[in-house]
Structure formats: C-alpha cells, structure tokens
Amino acid sequence: xxxxxxxxxxxxxxxxxxxxxxxxxxxxxxxxxxxxxxxxxxxxxxxxxxxxxxxxxxxxxxxxxxxxxxxxxxxxxxxxxxxxxxxxxxxxxxxxxxxxxxxxxxxxxxxxxxxxxxxxxxxxxxxxxxxxxxxxxxxxxxxxxxxxxxxxxxxxxxxxxxxxxxxxxxxxxxxxxxxxxxxxxxxxxxxxxxxxxxxxxxxxxxxxxxxxxxxxxxxxxxxxxxxxxxxxxxxxxxxxxxxxxxxxxxxxxxxxxxxxxxxxxxxx
Length: 268
Prior knowledge:
Number of domains: 2
Number of strands: 8
Oligomer: single chain
Largest sheet: 8 strands, mixed
Distance between the termini: 31 Å
Number of helices: 11
CATH topology of the largest domain: Rossmann fold
Helix content: 40-55%
CATH architecture of the largest domain: 3-Layer(aba) Sandwich
Strand content: 5-15%
CATH class of the largest domain: Alpha Beta
C-alpha cells in the first residue's frame, strides 16, 4: 500500500514507526513530506522511508494520504492539493479541530477519514476515535482500522459530533493524568519521600490501578469501595478530595475542553 504522510511530527512518526514495525506499511512504499532537513534525515535513517522537502509529497499512485499537519498549515495544504486528488485516494486526517465537511471542501475530495488519536499512541497504548465520509470504501475503512490498531485501541463512530467529545476525554485526558501524576508526586515529596522513590511509586500506582480496572473488568467505583476501610487512611484522603472538589474539577475540565473543541471546529 503506497502511503504519503503530509507532516512528519510526533503523531505521524508514531503511526509510521508502529505500522512499519507491525508490517502494516512497507517502508519502501512510504513518502513523508517534511520541510525541515534535520527531521527528514532522521526519518530516512530511522525508518528507511522516502522524504520530500516540499510541503506536499509526490501523490502519484498513492492510495492513502495521512494528513498530519498543524491546523494553521491547512490552508496551504488546501491550496497545494485541493482538486488534485484522484477518486481512488483516501485522506486520513489527524488534524485537530477540523471536521469532515471543511476537509472535504478544502481538498475538493469526498473520501475523507477523520481521526482523534491521543499521545499514548507513541507507545502503542493510544485511543483513536474515528469516523469517515460516505465516500470512503469498506476496503479503505479496513485499511484505516489496521493503521490505527498499530497505535492501540481504535473506535469507529458514525456520528462525527462524538469526536469533539472524544477530544475532551481521550484527546485531552492524558494531560489530566499527567497533572494528577505531578500533583501526587509533589505531595509525596512534600511529605519527605525521596524524589526517585516517589517517581517509581507514583507511576507504578497509576499503571497498576488502571491495569486492575482493565483486567478485572470491575467498576472503578467498586474497586474504590473495596480499598476504602471506614475510618481508615484512604477514607480520610478521599474525604479531602471531595472537600476540595476533585470530581467537580474533573467534570469542569472535560466540559471546558469539549466547549473549546466545538469552538475550534466552528472556526474552521
């Protein structure tokens, strides 16, 4: 499958590296458009792929085009390839905040897939929520699903509005988790625990807790209840979280991110 990447950033590299490693993509049939020479050299050396110094790679005989630029770079992409794509080509966009309608209008093309991935895709533990325009064939959908499975879990949705919701949860969610890790680490160090010991303790606690929920398929509320003895230390800690509005803060963060996702989408 000949594939072109427009943009060679972190998320594009995650998809590229994992898809090549798993045999979904053949490096000899991949071209990445990357204007920064050092970045081109890096991609060529690490993945043995072709690169292009132009903003747009050669699209002849390419079946799938991965659109992985920043939103502010889209107008120039539209100018360069809008109206020049063949009917047999599928665009897979991981550009944040840009919907199918705007992508289709700008590219003058009907076969568009829109994906909301997240940063844990870099280690194969991401979540990619995606949808597709009616013009995307079943074969192209299967190809997209295979690419996204290289990054972790993929979820197809018919309703594109769910992508803005996914942006607020799985897209922004890693930042919420990183913030929690920061806060728990800072609190532990403030107690007097050594920094190195705390780092390992906090990371393994977060990883282990998530794994317990995933592997046992147990409601996290039930797991929380099981570890909380009446009058014990955990109960006291949870009481402090409630007092300081932990649940309210998380809900507010998700709602704020969702509103912003809608605003950005409407601005495109």
